[in-house]
Amino acid sequence: MEEKQGIKIGMPIIGGLIAAILGGIVWAAIAAMTEYEVGLIAILIGALTGYAVVLFSNKRIATVHKVIAVIFALVGILLGKYLTVVYFTSELFGDVSVMELVFDSEMISAFVETFQEYFSQPIDLLFIVLAIVSAWQIPGRMARTSLATDASSSDHAPRA
Questions:
Q1: CB neighbours (10 Å) of residue 110?
Q2: Chain-centre distance of CA 106, in angstroms?
Q3: What is the distance between the alpha carbons of residues 40 and 30, in angstroms, rounded to a whole number?
Q4: pTM listed for this prediction
Q5: Packing angle, helices 122-155 and 40-56, rounded to 10
Q6: d(CA 58, CA 96)
Q7: Rounded to 5 degrees, what are φ and ψ at 25?
Q8: Are 21 and 76 in contact (CB under 8 A)?
Q9: Is the distance from CB of 35 to CB of 105 less than 8 angstroms?
Q10: How far apart are CA 72 and CA 138, in angstroms?
Protein backbone atom coordinates (compact mmCIF):
# COMPACT_ATOMS: atom_id res chain seq x y z
CA MET A 1 0.00 0.00 0.00
CA GLU A 2 0.94 3.63 -0.10
CA GLU A 3 3.28 5.28 2.37
CA LYS A 4 3.76 9.05 2.59
CA GLN A 5 6.15 10.72 5.02
CA GLY A 6 6.26 7.64 7.26
CA ILE A 7 2.47 7.29 7.40
CA LYS A 8 1.40 3.77 6.62
CA ILE A 9 -2.14 3.09 5.45
CA GLY A 10 -2.01 -0.51 4.21
CA MET A 11 -2.06 -2.21 7.60
CA PRO A 12 -4.61 0.23 9.08
CA ILE A 13 -6.92 -0.57 6.15
CA ILE A 14 -6.56 -4.28 6.89
CA GLY A 15 -7.22 -3.63 10.59
CA GLY A 16 -10.28 -1.52 9.80
CA LEU A 17 -11.63 -4.20 7.46
CA ILE A 18 -11.17 -6.94 10.06
CA ALA A 19 -12.88 -4.80 12.70
CA ALA A 20 -15.76 -3.97 10.33
CA ILE A 21 -16.34 -7.63 9.51
CA LEU A 22 -16.18 -8.70 13.16
CA GLY A 23 -18.43 -5.81 14.20
CA GLY A 24 -20.99 -6.62 11.50
CA ILE A 25 -21.06 -10.28 12.51
CA VAL A 26 -21.49 -9.37 16.19
CA TRP A 27 -24.31 -6.97 15.27
CA ALA A 28 -26.16 -9.70 13.38
CA ALA A 29 -25.50 -12.34 16.04
CA ILE A 30 -26.92 -10.11 18.78
CA ALA A 31 -29.92 -9.27 16.59
CA ALA A 32 -30.47 -13.00 15.94
CA MET A 33 -30.21 -13.90 19.63
CA THR A 34 -32.39 -11.08 20.92
CA GLU A 35 -34.64 -10.69 17.85
CA TYR A 36 -33.99 -6.99 18.22
CA GLU A 37 -31.44 -4.64 16.69
CA VAL A 38 -29.39 -2.98 19.38
CA GLY A 39 -28.28 0.38 18.03
CA LEU A 40 -25.54 0.72 20.62
CA ILE A 41 -23.63 -1.93 18.67
CA ALA A 42 -23.11 0.72 15.96
CA ILE A 43 -21.16 2.82 18.45
CA LEU A 44 -19.10 -0.22 19.41
CA ILE A 45 -18.35 -0.86 15.73
CA GLY A 46 -17.10 2.72 15.45
CA ALA A 47 -14.93 2.27 18.51
CA LEU A 48 -13.65 -1.10 17.30
CA THR A 49 -12.65 0.22 13.89
CA GLY A 50 -10.96 3.23 15.47
CA TYR A 51 -9.01 1.02 17.84
CA ALA A 52 -8.06 -1.44 15.06
CA VAL A 53 -6.75 1.36 12.86
CA VAL A 54 -4.62 2.64 15.73
CA LEU A 55 -3.37 -0.83 16.56
CA PHE A 56 -2.46 -1.63 12.94
CA SER A 57 -0.75 1.75 12.45
CA ASN A 58 1.60 1.30 15.42
CA LYS A 59 -0.06 4.35 17.01
CA ARG A 60 1.26 6.69 14.32
CA ILE A 61 -1.99 8.48 13.52
CA ALA A 62 -2.77 11.01 10.83
CA THR A 63 -6.09 12.33 9.56
CA VAL A 64 -6.14 9.65 6.88
CA HIS A 65 -6.30 7.02 9.64
CA LYS A 66 -9.37 8.66 11.13
CA VAL A 67 -11.01 8.66 7.70
CA ILE A 68 -10.17 4.95 7.31
CA ALA A 69 -11.76 4.24 10.71
CA VAL A 70 -14.94 6.13 9.80
CA ILE A 71 -15.26 4.41 6.41
CA PHE A 72 -14.87 0.98 7.96
CA ALA A 73 -17.28 1.83 10.78
CA LEU A 74 -19.89 2.55 8.11
CA VAL A 75 -18.97 -0.67 6.30
CA GLY A 76 -19.37 -2.61 9.56
CA ILE A 77 -22.79 -1.07 10.23
CA LEU A 78 -23.90 -1.82 6.68
CA LEU A 79 -22.64 -5.39 6.95
CA GLY A 80 -24.42 -5.83 10.29
CA LYS A 81 -27.69 -4.60 8.81
CA TYR A 82 -27.27 -6.85 5.78
CA LEU A 83 -26.46 -9.95 7.82
CA THR A 84 -29.43 -9.21 10.09
CA VAL A 85 -31.75 -9.00 7.08
CA VAL A 86 -30.26 -12.24 5.72
CA TYR A 87 -30.79 -14.00 9.05
CA PHE A 88 -34.42 -12.94 9.41
CA THR A 89 -35.11 -13.77 5.76
CA SER A 90 -33.73 -17.29 6.28
CA GLU A 91 -35.90 -17.63 9.39
CA LEU A 92 -38.94 -16.48 7.42
CA PHE A 93 -38.46 -19.05 4.66
CA GLY A 94 -37.07 -21.78 6.88
CA ASP A 95 -35.78 -24.00 4.07
CA VAL A 96 -32.95 -21.64 3.11
CA SER A 97 -29.79 -21.36 5.20
CA VAL A 98 -28.11 -18.09 6.10
CA MET A 99 -24.98 -19.12 4.21
CA GLU A 100 -26.98 -19.72 1.03
CA LEU A 101 -28.50 -16.24 1.24
CA VAL A 102 -25.40 -14.24 2.16
CA PHE A 103 -23.99 -14.35 -1.36
CA ASP A 104 -27.29 -14.77 -3.21
CA SER A 105 -27.56 -12.14 -5.95
CA GLU A 106 -31.32 -11.75 -5.44
CA MET A 107 -30.81 -11.15 -1.73
CA ILE A 108 -28.12 -8.56 -2.40
CA SER A 109 -30.31 -6.83 -5.01
CA ALA A 110 -33.30 -6.77 -2.66
CA PHE A 111 -31.15 -5.28 0.10
CA VAL A 112 -29.78 -2.59 -2.22
CA GLU A 113 -33.27 -1.73 -3.48
CA THR A 114 -34.65 -1.39 0.06
CA PHE A 115 -31.46 0.05 1.55
CA GLN A 116 -33.04 3.35 2.51
CA GLU A 117 -35.71 1.61 4.63
CA TYR A 118 -33.07 0.12 6.93
CA PHE A 119 -31.68 3.54 7.80
CA SER A 120 -34.86 5.63 7.74
CA GLN A 121 -35.54 5.96 11.47
CA PRO A 122 -34.07 8.97 13.29
CA ILE A 123 -32.63 6.66 15.94
CA ASP A 124 -30.70 4.79 13.22
CA LEU A 125 -29.18 8.05 12.06
CA LEU A 126 -28.31 9.01 15.62
CA PHE A 127 -26.42 5.76 16.21
CA ILE A 128 -24.64 6.10 12.85
CA VAL A 129 -23.51 9.62 13.78
CA LEU A 130 -22.32 8.39 17.18
CA ALA A 131 -20.44 5.54 15.49
CA ILE A 132 -18.76 8.04 13.15
CA VAL A 133 -17.79 10.24 16.09
CA SER A 134 -16.34 7.22 17.94
CA ALA A 135 -14.40 6.05 14.91
CA TRP A 136 -13.02 9.56 14.34
CA GLN A 137 -12.10 10.38 17.94
CA ILE A 138 -10.58 7.14 19.19
CA PRO A 139 -7.51 7.21 16.91
CA GLY A 140 -6.77 10.80 17.92
CA ARG A 141 -7.20 10.10 21.61
CA MET A 142 -5.13 6.94 21.53
CA ALA A 143 -2.37 8.68 19.60
CA ARG A 144 -2.31 11.55 22.12
CA THR A 145 -2.22 9.06 24.99
CA SER A 146 0.65 7.24 23.31
CA LEU A 147 2.54 10.48 22.76
CA ALA A 148 1.95 11.55 26.37
CA THR A 149 3.21 8.18 27.61
CA ASP A 150 6.28 8.41 25.40
CA ALA A 151 6.98 11.96 26.58
CA SER A 152 6.58 11.12 30.26
CA SER A 153 8.81 8.06 29.97
CA SER A 154 11.49 10.14 28.27
CA ASP A 155 11.23 12.77 31.05
CA HIS A 156 12.14 10.14 33.60
CA ALA A 157 14.94 8.61 31.61
CA PRO A 158 18.35 8.77 33.24
CA ARG A 159 20.54 11.48 31.81
CA ALA A 160 24.22 11.04 31.09
A1: 13
A2: 26
A3: 11
A4: 0.85
A5: 30
A6: 43
A7: -65, -45
A8: yes
A9: no
A10: 14
